[in-house]
Write the structure tokens for this entry.
Amino acid sequence: MRHAEAEDGSPDADRRLTAKGEEQSRTVGAALARLGVTVGCCVTSPKVRARDTARLVCDALGVDIREDERLAGGPFDAHELAAEFGEDLMLVGHDPDFSLAVHRMTGAQMRIPKSGVVAVHRGELKVALRPAELRALAQGSAR
């Protein structure tokens, strides 16, 4: 998952979620819970906006959160993280890093929007959900 909408400013690591970003995060948590998604562990960038996104999403899923510097910015190895934390893993961080990781794992070309969710299983892109779709899922309606 890419972090939700955050304030502008610096230092970059301290940028907080906006009110809209907090709502986006709660919506993602509600949508994933409604879908019956189970996550064993959530690993997040230590940057405030990502950590707060993870906390709000994972409150709805009852999942523990761990911070990892490898998600703070720049390329990372999702396979390495899965080997360390388990395959039923949720990652929360930043773009373009996450879009690049999805490309390396699946070959898919995409840009993940803020508060967007992508699921990959064994190199296969399973789903990509945009904020509007997550909102509809959280509310229980189809678009």
Remarks:
- The CA atoms of residues 16 and 49 lie 5 Å apart.
- The first strand starts at residue 41 and ends at 44.
- The mean pLDDT is 95.
